């Protein structure tokens, strides 16, 4: 019995040594970060929101602040942001600050849309992303590196989830041939939340439900198929989500049995008319060429008769002289 009391006393007297883990939450209850403190020295920590939401085409800010074990540090530092996964994900932003400088010179900004809002000298690595696209949706991780040993650097392990929302947009719509002279239509749209697709057209009514095509949906895109189009006409695909709607149309026209002969006759008539027009143009061109090669010259003007008659009259009117004397030896 006495041994049991001694063991209990020893357990009570144990003072917990090591790290104290404390979790903070923001005003909405979202997890902000897990801070690790140890007496007496402070350790590295990162503070980031669990999620940030923004609309495609606009800008988003990813907050990130940190603590480090140094009371004061003014040496060279590097700020880095990754996408996808920590430590191994591709870098989307990187800047470096020289010793004693608060200006972090940008060395990498993916597509020129990432820029640092915070001041790393003041433990702030907040990042701004311009002109958001659905492809920017994902998880991002901030990292800071001091010039020193491998322990003078830290990167967030959980990161911040960037959720990009977007109204629907029709990416592609088409009519494709199938077996047995049949046709089917495909419609692909993107948006976040992923849009719901519906077809309308001849004998379908308005808002007919579309068949989701297995294996065609990926990311923020959804594809719906309208099989076996039975009637000619206009088919419309409508995509909608909580942010809006979009629609696009395709047309289907086919030749049918009884009208095939008339369609053939119409086609031949059109070809015959084109042939006649071509022959007419060639005839006009040949005539013009002949005139250019053989120009028509006007006849020589007749000799003026009045002048010749006057000349003869003048000869007749001239006086004859006396006969010449003939001398003989």
Automatic annotation (TrEMBL):
Residues 1-23 form the signal peptide. One of its GO terms (biological process) is regulation of osteoclast development. Residues 40-145, 168-251 form the Ig-like domain. Residues 294-329 are annotated as: Disordered. Keywords: Membrane, Signal, Transmembrane, Transmembrane helix. It comes from the Eukaryota. Pfam families: V-set (PF07686). Residues 306-318 have a biased composition (Polar residues). The chain crosses the membrane at residues 263-285. One of its GO terms (cellular component) is plasma membrane. This is Ig-like domain-containing protein. It comes from Bos indicus x Bos taurus (Hybrid cattle).
